[in-house]
Amino acid sequence: WAGPVIHSQVELNHDQELILEDAPLALALDSQPNSFQQADGIWGLAYHHLNKSYDVSQYLNQQKPPLNSTYPWPFHNQISTTSVAAFKKYLRQFNEQDITPLFTAFEENKITTNQFALSTHRSIVYVPRDGLTQEEIANEQLNQGEFIIGAKVPDSPASSLKVVHDAYYNTELLSCQVDGFPSYTAPPLQSEKINNFFSNAIIDSGCSFLVLQKSIYTYVMDCLKQINKNFPHQVQKAQTAFKTDKSYLNPNIELNKWPDISLNFSGNNDEPVKLLIPPTCYWQQHAQKPGNWMFMLMNQLPQWPDQTICGLPLINNYYCVFDRSNTKNGMIHCFPKSKHH
Length: 341
Known about the structure:
Layout: E1 5-13, E2 17-26, E3 52-55, H1 57-62, H2 76-81, H3 84-91, E4 95-98, H4 102-108, E5 115-119, H5 134-139, E6 146-149, E7 159-162, E8 170-171, E9 173-178, E10 184-185, H6 194-197, E11 201-203, E12 210-212, H7 214-227, H8 231-243, E13 261-266, E14 272-277, H9 279-282, E15 283-285, E16 293-295, E17 297-299, E18 308-310, H10 312-315, E19 318-323, E20 331-336, H11 337-340
Parallel strand pairs: 11-18, 12-17
Antiparallel strand pairs: 1-2, 3-4, 5-6, 5-19, 7-20, 8-11, 9-10, 9-13, 12-18, 13-14, 15-16, 19-20
C-alpha cells in the first residue's frame, strides 16, 4: 500500500482525556486488492525496521506549480499505470526516514507507560452462521479482543520471555515438545542470517499462523502420525482447502484426541520458559466460513531462514504484556487466560 503521511491530533479516552498533538498517520490511498480486508486501518506496534517512509520533497519541488506536500496525494495516476510494487521501487531513489510509531509517541510524550497488552481469542475470524453482517461478526464474543495501550503488568506470576533484539520482538526458542513425546531442540538461526534476522524466533501478533522452522514442523507431524495415522491426512486436506479457497468440513475432528504442543523459550534470566498451545488454538473451527476448519500450524516459508514465527496460535492462549519499560529490548509477560480473567 502507499499514501501520504499526515499529522493530526490523536486522543485516548480512558479515565481522562489524553491528547497527543502532531501525531503522524499514514493514509493508505493506493493498495493492492484485499490488503486490508474489512479493516479501516492498522495499529503499528513494531520497532523502527517496519516504519519506513520517504522524503519526496525533491519530486514536489520539480512539479509545476511546485507542490507543498503529498496531501492531496499526487501519485494516483502513476501507480494506476504501473503498480504499488513498482512505486515502491521508484521511491528508493529518495531519502529514507523512520516514522515514530503512535505507541512510541504516546510513551515519549509521557501520555502512557512503555507497555501494551494483547488479549485475543482467535487466529482467524469466527463466522458460525451464514448471512451475518460485518457488524454481527464483529460482535461475536470470540472475535472480541483487547489492545491496551499503557497496560500495567498484573501481580500474578507470569511466563516472561526475554526479547533478544529490538527488530521484530526477537526471542530465543529452545525447544518444542508434543505432549507425550521427548522434546525437540530448536535449531539456531543460520550464522549468515543473524545480521538481518537476529534470532531463531519472533513473537508476531500480525501473523495468523504459527510458522514452525522446517525440522520442528517435521517433528510435530511425525508425533501426530504416531498418535493417529489419520492426523497428517486431515492436516493435509485442511491445508489444501485453505490454499484453494475452499472449505474443509470435517465433523470427525475430535480436538480432545489431539495433543497439546509447547514451545520453550529463554526467560529474562536465561531460564527456560514454557508456553502451551492447546488443540483449540492450532485448529480453528468456523474459520471465515461456517463449519470450515483451518489448521494454524505452518511449515517454514520458502526462502525464509531457520526461524519460527510465533503468531496468534501462541498468543491466543495468554494475556500478553509487551513490556519495554525496564530493559533495552524489553520482555513479553504471558499470563494464562484462566488465571488472568
